[in-house]
Amino acid sequence: MKKSIIVSVLIMFAVVFGATAQEGKDKFMVQVDGLGCPFCAYGLEKKFKEFKGIKNVKIDIETGDFSFSYPAEKALTLGDVEKQVEKAGYTPVTAKVERANGTFEESSAAAMMQKTEGAVTKNVMVAGNCAMCEARITKAAASVNGVTDVSWDKDTKIMKVSFDAELTSLENVEKEVAVAGHDTKNHKAHTDDYGNLPACCKYERLSYKK
Amino acid sequence: MRQSIIILIGLVFASACKEKEIVPKEWVLSKTIQLDGVNPIGLSQVNGAIWLSDGDHNRLVKIDKEGQITETIDSLDRPMHIDAIEETLFIPQYGKDVVETVDKKGRFVMQLTDSLDAPAGVSVFNNERAIADFYNNRILYFDGVNWISFGKEGKAQGEFYYPTDVQITNDKIWVADAYNNRVQVFDKKGGFVQMMGQDEKMNAATGIFVAEKEVFVTDFENDRVLVFDKAGKLLQVLRDQIEKPTDMMLKDKKLYVINYRNGKLNVFDKQPIEK
Question: Which Pfam families would you find in this protein's record (chain B) (predicted)?
Fold first, then answer.
């Protein structure tokens, strides 16, 4: 009987202590673009190990959902998290945190873009085939007010664009490129615009998740 | 009588010619083994037994012919493309920046003269060693005496964009240049020799296995394994049951291909092509 009481007390202590420990953690949830394989997912995890005290790291490669908990007293900001995702080579789409005190903070892609100040450089997939495509894509992107530099690699299909985030956004650049007839990661070109491309530029259309 | 002899000689010649005819062969799926709770990334063999690195679960597992786990090596940190020589397993640990060796004497960390950032693949060949150093975009190669390093981030020949696997052969070093979507081949001084697969629209060439006459490459996102000859000519594309493949191995004339996501081990045999 005495033994049972001691065990019960110990369990109660463990539960209470566990709950307290859980209360002392901020829970971060980030949606990450660009995760495709275990190498990417483990890479993201590896870069976040630099945050000493990180726990409960979970990454879903399919959805790009990434979550972890972190000691509340360290007051990690969403901005810090987004920077670390970018340092690992990926793009944060949305980020939110449930603070240990029960409050929520959130930043969406649009909000992130608004918060960005000054010159930024982004990489994004743009479909195309050849040197003519390259000329068309870079011309369209460069026509957007605020864009300072742009290049496109026909092998990797990656457009690298630098712009003043106070004047424009990656979304605006992608829209302009799509109008020129080229599918981008987030904007599909209209069938008519694609149809107007010369035969050699008729690339394989990108597929988009519904 | 004379006519019969002529016909007989003719038949003998015809059959002799037929025997000499080379029948083309290709790889055909013979078996798929569903693994239980394993997400394999690399595979190798020790004494004929297959070992798989299970990155998601931080372990290596040895499996029997039915895919049942018979032995486990735990407490690893994201083990990736493994290799083995004699009875020693070489395990690159992506999360811990080390290559660990495991044999009957115990577990040891391979001593290097340089630091790694996410080792994704290792190769052993006699007393030579090579490591695909993922985030440093380079290959470290030990020729038995000295370590050398070659490669840097980029898309030009000799440059890498996240190399994930490597294999040493008699006179070359073969690299799965994953996110440049190609294979690159180097001499043992680190000099660029050739490139292959760059026109095959691969999406993450994550694994490589070089056999006597063929080179096998996993095309991770496109759910394919591409088979090239050593000059880089595409010979065959394997798709049957292949889904998010990460590595391959030839063993007893069978080709083993592992699927990362659904945990399957696919076995292919080389069979004559039906006309």
Answer: NHL
How many of the other CB atoms lie within 10 Å of CB of B37?
Answer: 10
- Chain A contact probe: residue of B41, B58, B78, B219 with most A CBs at under 10 A: B78
User: Helices then strands (H, E): number in chain B?
Assistant: 1, 24
Residue A90 lies in a domain: yes
Minimal C-alpha gap between A102 and chain B (Å): 31
Nearest 5°: CA angle at A111, between A108 and A115?
135
What per-residue confidence (pLDDT) applies to A21?
Answer: 45
Nearest residue in A to B95, CA atom: A46
Residues 6+ apart with CB under 8 A from B84: B44, B45, B46, B51, B90, B124
Residues B168-208 pLDDT 10s: 999 999 999 998 999 999 999 999 999 999 999 998 999 99
Contact residues of A toward B, CB < 8 A: 36-39, 42-43, 45-46, 49, 61, 153, 155-156
Instruction: Using CA coordinates, name the residue in chain B closest to A153.
Output: B155
pLDDT surpassing 70 at residue B259: yes
Alpha carbon distance B99, A77 (integer Å): 34
| A72 and A136 together in one domain | no
Residue-wise pLDDT tens digits, A43-60: 899 889 888 899 998 888
Reported residue count of chain B is 275
Domain edge (last residue) among A114, A135, A164:
A114
Whether residue B85 has pLDDT greater than 70: yes
CB-CB neighbours of A210 under 10 Å: 3
Confidence of residue B266 (pLDDT cuts 50, 70, 90): very high
How many CB atoms neighbour CB B146 within 10 A? 8
Look at residue B247 and tell me if it is in a domain.
yes
| CA–CA separation, B54 and B35 (whole Å) | 11
Calculate ∠ Cα B31-B35-B38, nearest 5°: 140
- The question of ipTM being above 0.85 is answered as no
Q: Which two tokens stand for residue B55?
A: 């990155």
Q: What are the structure tokens assigned to B248, written together?
A: 């391959």
Q: Does residue A132 sit in the same domain as residue A54?
A: no
| Structure token pair of residue B216 | 């096998």
- B215 contact A CB<8A: no
Rounded to the nearest angstrom, the gap between the alpha carbon of residue B114 and the centroid of all alpha carbons in its chain is 25
What's the CATH number where B147 sits? Answer: 2.120.10.30
Least confident of B1-10, B129-138, B220-229: B1-10
> What's the CA gap between A26 and A167, in Å, rounded?
34
Closest-CA residue in chain A for B222?
A36
